[in-house]
Amino acid sequence: MATPTDNLRIKGQRLWDSIHEMAEIGPGVRGGNNRQTLTDEDGEGRRLFQAWCEEAGLTVTVDSMGTMFARREGEDKSLPPVMVGSHLDTQPTGGRYDGVLGVLSGLEIIRTLNDFGIKTRHPIEVVNWTNEEGTRFAPAMLASGVFAGVHDQAWAYDREDAAGLKFGDELERIGFKGSEPVGHRKLRAFFELHIEQGPILEKEERDIGVVTHGQGLNWLQVTLVGKESHTGSTPMPMRVNAGLGMARITEAVDEIALGHAPLAVGAVGHCDVYPNSRNIIPGKVVFTIDFRHPEKEVIAAMEAKLRERAAKIAADIGLEMEIEQVGAFDPVTFDPECVGRVRAAADRLGYTHRDIVSGAGHDACWINRVAPTAMVFCPCVDGLSHNEDEDITQEWSTAGANVLFHAVVETAEIVG
Question: What is the spatial distance between Cα 13 and Cα 132, in angstroms, rounded to a whole number?
Fold first, then answer.
């Protein structure tokens, strides 16, 4: 059935210009961004976003986890809002589009509604979730996790970065520790547009990914303690090399993930080696393991196997070992009605599309616990993300934002 917005499209050039203006804040070394959460650069990006929202007539409020909500009032103020957005924080060597595309496409929806004088029955809120990336303060999706009741706020405030600075203190320092209690804001639905962060859509020449599910994730932090000693004068049989233990466990992670093919993935990402000197055998290493799969039982099986293999590796070398879970979420099934609206919008607009499972975690994965939720993917070049060479085309961003626009506005219900 036709709706009054069927012929409407967002202004792709305006969205594209906004994305690249935001990218001027916290520039990377080769064209990407370093705008890590709660840094001065994050604060500057937030203030620019707030200014744009206020220019569009939105009311901006901030909750006590620093998440920003920019509201366009609906005809019925008593109704819960349709929320749309993502995150503005980046990896240390992040791209220009991861997260930012979703936030600024939400703002573009509002600008387009304003252009045509369209009113909706439900309010619409554009959201910037705090600390989605989890690079500076683990775990990822921290603020949306508190919003959904997964994490305790006091625990979140105590998260420390590599320099020992606490999340709560840094939130206050940049001026974005709001007064609104987290999670008190009810919502009709949540939609998030994101780059795929994988190669499938580009390879198959599809414009849109209709995200039906999200992989589960398990982050394990492993600490191995051996004995520091001179690399030149310590006989090989007498070494207690924590670095060797990390190397062998890294190999085990790869073997375990391959053993649960084709959907399982696993890798060692972050690592710290102590004392990190070229002529000292490492006495301590701390590193993280990332396991993912669409089935919860498989993730549990991979962790169990890892613990078994790691214990034997540590014992063989003579290392002390501690394994701590520092982040996790169960596989996600997104709301069928919201997913259906995304799929129907892509059909109406004439975009090629396919159903897809998200291999990465997103704020939508937590919000799905408390409200109907769906995601839209657009392709990215070579599937590359979390890298300064991350790239998309203006046409891809426009297609994704158009589908997002129609799904959100349909859910918010046009008046008249």
Answer: 27
How many CB atoms are located within 10 Å of the residue 274 CB? 15
DSSP 227: -
CA distance 370 to 184: 11
What burial class does residue 390 get, using C-beta atoms within 10 Å of its C-beta: 0-12 exposed, 13-18 middle, 19+ buried?
buried
At 250-272, the pLDDT tens digits run 999 999 999 999 889 999 999 99
Using CA atoms, how far residue 145 sits from 65, 102, 299, 329, 330, in Å, is: 10, 18, 20, 10, 12
Tokens of 140: 């990822």
- The answer to whether the beta carbons of residues 82 and 411 sit under 8 Å apart is yes
For 146-169, what is each residue's pLDDT tens digit?
A: 999 999 999 999 999 999 999 999
Q: Is the model's pLDDT at 6 over the cut of 80?
A: no
Rg, Å, the chain Cα set: 23
Q: Which residues have CB under 8 Å from 48's CB, separation 6+?
A: 21, 22, 25
How would you label 13-32 residue by residue, b for 16+ Cβ within 10 Å and e otherwise? eebbebbeebbebbebeeeb
Q: Lowest-confidence range among 146-155, 328-337, 372-381?
A: 328-337
Quote the CA–CA distance of 274 and 286 in Å, as a whole number: 9
Whole-number pLDDT of residue 1: 45
Strand partners, 284: 225, 274
358 three-state secondary structure: strand
CA angle 38, 42, 47 (to 5 degrees): 120
Q: How far is CA 203 from the centre of its chain?
A: 23
* The total number of residues written for the chain in this structure: 416
**In whole angstroms, what is the distance from residue 161 CA to residue 37 CA?**
11
CA distance 163 to 170: 12
Tell me the two tokens of residue 322: 């501690």
For residue 62, the cross-strand partners are 68
Q: Residue 149: count other Cβ atoms within 10 Å of its Cβ.
A: 12
Report pLDDT for 265: 94
The mean pLDDT of 196-202, rounded to a whole number, is 96
